[in-house]
Structures are given as structure tokens and as C-alpha cells.
Recover the amino acids of this structure.
């Protein structure tokens, strides 16, 4: 049994096809098939079954693949430990972020990282929280920027900053004349929301449950825009389609003429969300994680309340049962 053979079966289980798995492993399909056959002969079990055009993993095969994934992660951890004798900033650091953070943070973050750790290659991507969690646990990324609350086995996290929400309204809308807008006023409006996979959508609905009203199919404007990005929704606001709630970093007041969009605060207090950095508990390059967290805090965060230093225990104890917490500006 070799590590290469374990990588082969993990790749096949992931890709569901021998040809795609071979490409992912940078080998020919006969080489991959031979390696899997050798492993099956050694173990005395069938790992995969071909049924017509489909490839099905056997029940024992599923268990062995899961064990192989764990073994490969431990091997990777051993390599990372060995790298501690070298410069922890010399290896690429793979960072993921949720869709409502990445576009607004990455342009500022990359130059700050380059200035503080010019030898560190930083690779970034955006995804949903659920996908970032899978990638983090599988070792496909090293760290993720997510919104709290966030509790996952085997994952550590540290709060970075707290970001208020603001309201975007078309400049022609009657609410544009208001200094502030209440949640009750929003409940009477057409609120443009992100799709169900976005955690920010859940936070908005927790703030304003009545904003997602049950309408007939012809009147249900929400269904039209579910799954859109904040950028798409913001353009819809500029076009006078409706109003929306966004994190303040995403408001980008300087990018849109005041005649198209007005940025309004909530009446009394602005609701907010807490943004944190997450990484695997067994990740060994903590110097890189600490540097990354500090670089994020040093970015222009649009007036967000920065949390300095490691506060793992203290911030976890302050998370309420609600996905939103509020603070005055």
C-alpha cells in the first residue's frame, strides 16, 4: 500500500470518473486503474463498481476512502511540521472568504500582505460558508474568512472585526428623504435579498422577518433576485427596482453617484455582523495565520470596529443566540 494509491482512490471518489481522477493526479488512466487494482488485491475488497456509465463506490470502499483522506491529511501535517524549520512565510497560503466579504476586502488585503510578507504567495478565492468549511477541513484551503456564529469540529477561529449594516435606497424613493430608516419601514418595501446559500441573507431575515412577505407569483420580486450577488442587487437598487441591506464595506459610497443611490443608517442603532478568521486546529504555520489576521485588521474596513489580538475565548462567550448583534455607531 502506498500513499500514491491512497491519493488515487480519494481522487476517484471525488471525481466519480477514472479519466477525471487520472487528470487530477497527473497520471494516465491505465496507471491510475492499475494502482487501484493493486490496492484492491492487497486489501481483498472491491472499492468501486461500474454500473453502466456510472461509477459507484462500495460501502467498504467508502469507509476506506474516508480513512485514506485522514491518512493523507496527517501526511500533509508531517510535511508542514518539517517546514517549520524553514521560513513559514515561504510556502503559499490559500485563503477563502465568503462572497459578501471577498470582493471588498481582497483588493486592500493583497497589497498589505505583500508589504508585510513579500515572500508569502497568497492565493485567494470566494465561496459559500458551507463550501469553505469543506475545503478547510479537506486541506484545500488553509484559512477562511467567515461570519459568526461559526462552530465546526476541528476548526479554530478568531474574531477580526465587527461590521455594521446600512440600507441602500434609490435616490428617487420616498425613503431617500429620511435621515434614518426603521425596520418597520423596511417591512413595507420590496427588499432585494441574496439567495438561500448566503449566510448574510439569513442575517437580514433575522433582522427583518417581515421583509420576506408571501406574495403571489406575479408580485414576488424576491424570487427574481435570489442567488444574485450584492453587486447585482446594488445595480437593481440604482435602477429603482427596490431597496436592500448590505454590510457597510459593500456600500462603496464613492463608486455611485448620489443621484442613483442613497446610503441610509438604521433608526437608533445599526445592526452588525462579526467577521472572523478560521483555520484547522492542526495547521502548523501559525506565524502565517497571525500575520494574515494582523494584515486584515490593518486594512481599510469601512469604519468597522476592529478587534485587536487573539480573543478566542472572550468572543465565543459573547456570541448570542441571535445571528445579529447590534452596536451604536
Amino acid at each position: 500500500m502506498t500513499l500514491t494509491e491512497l491519493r488515487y482512490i480519494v481522487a476517484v471518489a471525488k471525481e466519480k470518473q477514472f479519466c477525471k481522477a487520472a487528470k487530477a493526479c497527473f497520471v494516465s488512466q491505465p496507471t491510475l486503474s492499475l494502482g487501484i487494482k493493486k490496492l484492491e488485491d492487497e486489501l481483498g475488497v472491491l472499492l468501486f463498481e461500474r454500473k453502466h456509465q456510472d461509477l459507484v463506490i462500495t460501502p467498504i470502499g467508502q469507509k476506506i476512502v474516508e480513512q485514506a483522506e485522514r491518512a493523507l491529511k496527517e501526511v500533509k501535517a508531517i510535511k508542514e511540521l518539517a517546514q517549520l524549520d524553514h521560513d513559514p512565510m515561504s510556502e503559499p497560503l490559500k485563503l477563502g472568504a465568503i462572497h459578501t466579504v471577498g470582493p471588498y476586502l481582497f483588493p486592500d488585503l493583497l497589497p498589505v500582505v505583500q508589504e508585510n510578507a513579500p515572500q508569502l504567495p497568497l492565493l485567494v478565492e470566494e465561496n459559500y460558508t458551507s463550501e469553505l468549511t469543506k475545503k478547510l477541513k479537506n486541506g484545500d484551503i488553509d484559512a477562511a474568512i467567515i461570519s459568526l456564529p461559526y462552530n465546526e469540529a476541528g476548526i479554530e477561529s478568531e474574531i477580526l472585526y465587527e461590521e455594521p449594516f446600512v440600507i441602500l435606497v434609490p435616490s428617487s424613493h420616498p425613503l431617500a428623504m429620511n435621515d434614518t430608516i426603521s425596520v418597520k419601514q423596511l417591512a413595507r418595501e420590496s427588499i432585494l435579498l441574496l439567495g438561500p446559500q448566503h449566510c448574510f441573507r439569513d442575517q437580514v431575515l433575522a433582522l427583518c422577518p417581515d421583509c420576506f412577505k408571501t406574495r403571489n407569483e406575479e408580485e414576488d420580486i424576491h424570487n427574481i433576485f435570489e442567488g444574485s450577488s450584492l453587486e447585482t442587487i446594488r445595480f437593481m437598487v440604482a435602477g429603482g427596482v427596490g431597496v436592500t441591506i448590505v454590510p457597510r464595506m459593500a456600500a462603496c459610497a464613492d463608486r455611485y453617484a448620489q443621484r442613483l443611490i442613497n446610503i441610509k443608517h438604521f433608526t437608533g442603532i445599526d445592526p452588525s455582523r462579526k467577521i472572523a478568521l478560521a483555520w484547522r486546529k492542526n495547521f502548523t504555520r501559525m506565524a502565517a495565520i497571525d500575520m494574515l489576521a494582523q494584515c486584515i485588521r490593518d486594512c481599510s474596513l469601512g469604519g468597522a470596529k476592529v478587534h485587536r489580538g487573539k480573543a478566542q475565548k472572550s468572543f465565543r462567550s459573547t456570541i448570542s443566540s441571535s445571528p445579529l448583534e447590534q452596536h451604536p455607531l
The chain has 13 helices and twelve strands. The CA atoms of residues 207 and 324 lie 7 Å apart. Residues 59-83 form the longest helix (25 residues).
